[in-house]
Amino acid sequence: MAHSSSDPTPVGIKIGSTRTVVATPDGRSIDTDTTLTCLAEYEDVLSGEQHAIFGQQAVDEYPESVEFMLRTGLPEDERRTKETARFFERIVTANDLDPNSVVVYAIPAVNNEAGIDNLGTVIESTPIGDRLIRGYPESLCGSIPAFGRQLAAIGRVFISINLGSTNIGACGYQRGKQLVRFTTGSIAGNEVDRWIANNIEEETQGRVNVDESTAREYKENHGALDDFEPFTDAIQQPGGGTHEFTINRSVVDAIDRYVENAVETIADEFLPQLANDHMKIYKHALGEPIVLNGGMASIPGLVTTFEERLGRKLQHDIDVIAPETPETAAARGALQIAEQFVNQDWFYAADDQTP
Ligand SMILES: Nc1ncnc2c1ncn2[C@@H]1O[C@H](COP(=O)(O)OP(=O)(O)OP(=O)(O)O)[C@@H](O)[C@H]1O
Ligand SMILES: [Mg+2]
Q1: CA 36 to centroid of ligand 1, rounded, Å
Q2: Atom 8 in ligand 1: residue holding the nearest Cα
Q3: What pLDDT score was predicted for residue 72?
Q4: 140 near 174, Cβ under 8 Å?
Q5: Which domains does the chain carry?
Q6: 118 in Cβ contact with 75 (< 8 Å)
Q7: How does DSSP assign 68-110, residue by residue?
Q8: Does the C-beta of 217 come closer than 6 Å to ligand 1?
Q9: Tell me: the pLDDT tens digits for 20-46?
Q10: Cα–Cα distance between 49 and 212 in angstroms, integer?
Q11: What per-residue confidence (pLDDT) applies to 138?
Q12: Of 203, 251, 212, 211, which Cα lies nearest the Cα of 235?
């Protein structure tokens, strides 16, 4: 393959089970591109060939057959690895990503070595990252923008909590090194979507049933803990005509329950584990900002509610912070790491595969 000898382009990537985010430099700021991690296959009615469409278009046009191939967090098997590779190729083309690049990707905090290897295979199968490919934990990447434009997060000792679609992950970091890694799938953004759907069925006395994608959209567009507002939507009636309905507490109640569970798990499971293994670090880290990241941290009011409730439970004043736009923070942080590799000339020579 022909290589250019010019400096590589840094790229930051997060392949999440709900959204995939690509971050690239845009002058002095950062450009992000977000795509729902899903695809829908269809047969071309003329040629009979199988085709696929991706992202929001797949959700909108094939609501019955759209597949989120990373529903469980990582590419589980060969089929899903292939689908993810196909999806990711499309992302690379759509963003016109440079083969002459240093790619850093955010690795989800899950205990699934095979899945993480499959994710690595997907990234290595695309024509990008000729000069270097590296992975760093998602919750570390997401914390970088929370502590500012520089890589300050990598010089600190702090706790980071990632609020994702399929799990909650928490970790103590000591200058970028993971101390205790905790993950639980029992509290998850996807679960909140199911609660919302159930709440709506109850709130409307069974008149309205929404699917999980719709529930997720309600959560993302109307979810708030501080000053939530009721909202209305309409569904098509089976016999014709539309039925307009108002949602009062269905969304906010589900989010409230989520925060309650998250606080309880962090206080009763993760923090005791950290204290047990690293007592001094635990005490130190409680005096430092605790970072919340992952898409669920985008919900207005969630960060302050989490801070109040966790502080009350621990009987300790704590400071909880979040990056701006948490849903893209991991990709932006990954990009900042990639920029550091480029600036320091830590990458493979263009015509060489050894450093
Ligand atoms: N702006 C938003 N408002 C509310 N919720 C959001 C927003 N953006 C994303 N979310 C929710 O956050 C969750 C996705 O978070 P994130 O993108 O961090 O997950 P992921 O990395 O895809 O998942 P996982 O780490 O579990 O694989 C989903 O439940 C999604 O609905
Ligand atoms: Mg994630």
Answers
A1: 10
A2: 295
A3: 79
A4: no
A5: 9-150+327-343 (3.30.420.40)
A6: yes
A7: -TTTTSS--SHHHHHHHHHHHHHHHHHTT--SSEEEEEEEP--
A8: no
A9: 999 999 998 999 999 999 999 999 999
A10: 30
A11: 94
A12: 211
Query: For the chain, which residues score pLDDT lower than 70?
Result: 1-5, 149, 351-355
User: Residue 350 in contact with residue 4, Cβ under 8 Å?
Assistant: yes
Compute the distance between CA of residue 164 and CA of residue 16 in angstroms, rounded to an integer.
8
Q: What would the pLDDT profile of 298-346 be if each residue is shown by its tens digit?
A: 999 999 999 999 999 999 999 999 999 999 999 999 999 999 999 999 9
CA of 37 to the centre of ligand 2 (A): 12
Backbone dihedral angles phi then psi of residue 54, each to the nearest 5 degrees: -130, 160
* Verdict on whether the full-model pTM lies above 0.85: yes
Q: Is the dihedral of CA 167, 172, 176, 178 positive or negative?
A: negative
Q: Is the CB of 220 inside a 6 Å radius of any atom of ligand 1?
A: yes
Which pLDDT does position 3 carry in this prediction? 41
Long-range (24+ apart) CB contacts under 8 A made by 190-198 are 190/18, 190/71, 190/165, 190/166, 190/216, 191/258, 192/219, 192/254, 192/255, 192/257, 192/258, 192/296, 193/219, 195/253, 195/254, 195/257, 195/258, 196/250, 196/251, 196/254
Distances (CA, A) of 100 to 139, 332, 343: 27, 19, 15
